[in-house]
């Protein structure tokens, strides 16, 4: 009994940092409507800078001063990022903002290693709080007690700030309608920067306060951001009180989950999150988002199937690609097969994003599940490649059926965060369930059948699967089902008024996308001859997003072009630099800033500018739309 | 001239929306900007206060060219804007909504306090602690006007103040606007409801497809039914 | 017994506030009934209960004699209740014709088909509906390019796709020029009479109400305070005090004295 109490107290102490980070994320989202993926990076920077300062400054004043100074320094970095990057993309779709901040996260990961090295660092204890007190016959660190008190104190301070000061009232007003705040004479630019700095300060403080408890590592950003996403989904995005309550719930679940299911303690958190989402889709203290901006559907050019000429052009292009094995060497063909596999993966993500209007941040889960499915067939049933390729993707389908059921209850950033959380859960199961998945060592020896063992054969196989897969997805877009999906995306209100079942249609689309991702994943397992948890990692998901984005989100099949361009670029970059994350992150940021409509969207815009037949009509329509949208 | 707008051109992306729009408003005048839905009324207002990013032309307010200033700077000079759809802060109480609009007193211009606004709109005085989201459409319209008045403007752009309101509330709104006029405020309203515009306006402009098509007194408009029929499709 | 819609003792409250109290009325096929009242009187709540979006606390709603209790909006729609919205809601990535086709595909239970090109499905039927509302010449245009008045017509065509018996129109003429208002309401009345559809609409423009409604109901603080012909309603002193005011805001010919 005493043991449980002490465990509960330890959970409360962990909750404090989680709350600080989550409340910062919530406050920033509330006003800027940006889900700051880089929040984990700022948490990590807070810890590193605090480590650097606390090891140089002595005494209690030095220590606490260092903690505060570190948080302020990182907050200033956050403000700088807001001014340089985010101010340019406030009007972009949510997905672009998430991606841009993710790009920053990637860059910070490499920079941290460059500056502080890859080793785990151990900082000093807090002066005066280094000991432990005896509670219920057990020793509880004094520092934990301090953190337990700190949580509610910060909660109270934030409440006072937002309800008793004019600045706080302005922030709450901006949370609902930024433009109106400006139209009442408030300089909203600085309001935003201030809010962003406050949120980053809280994240950095959360990180800095971890120093006396744990080591500082360069992977702490991703682990905390996933937990924080779970916290804000449970508590409700935008609610500080929700972040507080949910942080306690998650921290306690972790504290006790370790005792019950040490292997997969995340499962407990996942189950609670699932229950909360079913009962309250916007979280415990969240409010329904009035109108989530769809990821696509901003265009007024209706989609058309290919004309005969275009069909011929595509057929010629495919035929040309099919002759490549006669000209290219083995390495180039292997790279080519990898690109083709990612064409299918990107096309599947593109389907759920553009036709379904749902931006998934965890699409790699289904790619990885398909890969594991194929690997299981080979390893446990000794199946040949052909059977494994057919059955393997079923695991992706099953995963999409299960996760999708929860995800389609949400939309916009909630959907993105939940898909990410599910992908992380799938990843940690693959990572931790060593008996079945081989854990970090993966499953090896997944080789193709003889006819596809040579690079030429595998290239043709990949080409056939990619062409058929993309073709089927394209056909779906123009089928009645595809129209139903677009109807739901364009106007959920109207779609439901004409008898369409939004959740069901989107669930079906989610499963379709997951299944095609699973097919790509199964093929990938045979290309690599092995399967690893990283197939489901966040970087894989983001690769897919960048491909879709690069291709153009308002196009029918832009992902094909995006995948070819991006994958070729990424493979080339990997061979050129050790700081691939830094370069990749920078590429993502540049793409978001420079090509908001993607390459194919850019080309289409150009085409329509040259051949704009009814300019006047379009202008009148824009005018009507702009006026009506107000 | 209180406000002088000339050669205002606005774009959204590639689309040209406003063409050489010009307006003049004298001190203490009530001017109506008439036009059907989608004619460009809201865009004109939004362009004047700098909420349309791509715009060209000059906006001279109180003798100063404000066309290059950001929205909050224009508003801080005493040019108030009341949007269509009211855009109340739903989570904030009546008092807090007023607090957001508050600005320092401006010399030579009527200064508004919440207490004075409760006199102008007695309904609001009975619900000072009520969140804006729990008020009726008519009460919200009063709140949004009051909120802008808290900035002590010398000129107010009122975008469709009668839209979606019960006739009786619209009559109250007309009274309130005339009271504001008596305080010395210049007012521009955008309207489709000609009945309402006639009750309060001195002069009118008609806008159609982003161009000003008519300018004159309300009596001129009355005397030219063919203009009214052509652009307002009465 | 040709009462299309029968509503009895409808009740709804939110957190102790009565939004709708004891509302009872009926609607005959082929007629237009206007529901007017101050902002916040409960009109939207009534509407949302009629199409199943909100569950009433008490009372019954019968459409063609059938109680719709417990039915989700989709099922109510299948019973023949169409709806248009105050702010137009259309599918902006499709052409005008495709907008109608989607509604028809849904009505005919074909929306889950994954094969075949949707652009050719139900095409003739869609074109028929567009002709009915006078949009034939606009059928192939992206619906994002339509003028506001035409968007409202498109909404009407989409709302007719399920061959409705009852049409709910939430401020159908809001934001339109006076002439467009008259045209849209005339068209609506024509279609309603021809097809035997009952139309219930809310409206703040008294010119439209007095010109086009067969009957008018007035809602105030959740209760019906008057019901009758347009003439009766605008003569009602209570309605004038609560809602109509001094009558400065609608055409003189509708005002007391000059009418009749």
TrEMBL record, chain A:
InterPro entries: ABC_transp_permease, BCAA_transport_permease, LivM-like. Its main location: membrane. The chain crosses the membrane at residues 25-51, 63-86, 98-117, 145-162, 190-212, 224-250, 256-279, 312-333, 339-359, 387-406, 413-434, 458-485, 505-527, 547-570, 582-603. One of its GO terms (cellular component) is plasma membrane. It is a multi-pass membrane protein. PANTHER family: ABC TRANSPORTER ATP-BINDING PROTEIN, BRANCHED-CHAIN AMINO ACID TRANSPORT SYSTEM PERMEASE PROTEIN LIVH. This is ABC transporter permease.
TrEMBL record, chain B:
GO terms for biological process: L-amino acid transport. One of its GO terms (molecular function) is branched-chain amino acid transmembrane transporter activity. It comes from the Bacteria. The keyword Ion transport does not apply. InterPro entries: AAA+_ATPase, ABC_transporter-like_ATP-bd, ABC_transporter-like_CS, BCAA_Transport_ATP-bd_LivF, P-loop_NTPase. SUPFAM superfamilies: P-loop containing nucleoside triphosphate hydrolases. Residues 3-234 form the ABC transporter domain. Keywords: Amino-acid transport, ATP-binding, Nucleotide-binding, Transport. CDD domains: ABC_TM1139_LivF_branched. Belongs to the ABC transporter superfamily. This is ABC transporter ATP-binding protein. It comes from Xanthobacter autotrophicus.
UniProtKB/TrEMBL annotation, chain C:
One of its GO terms (molecular function) is L-valine transmembrane transporter activity. Residues 5-246 form the ABC transporter domain. One of its GO terms (biological process) is L-isoleucine import across plasma membrane. Keywords: ATP-binding, Nucleotide-binding, Transport. GO terms for cellular component: plasma membrane. The keyword Transmembrane does not apply. Belongs to the ABC transporter superfamily. This is ABC transporter ATP-binding protein. It comes from Xanthobacter autotrophicus.
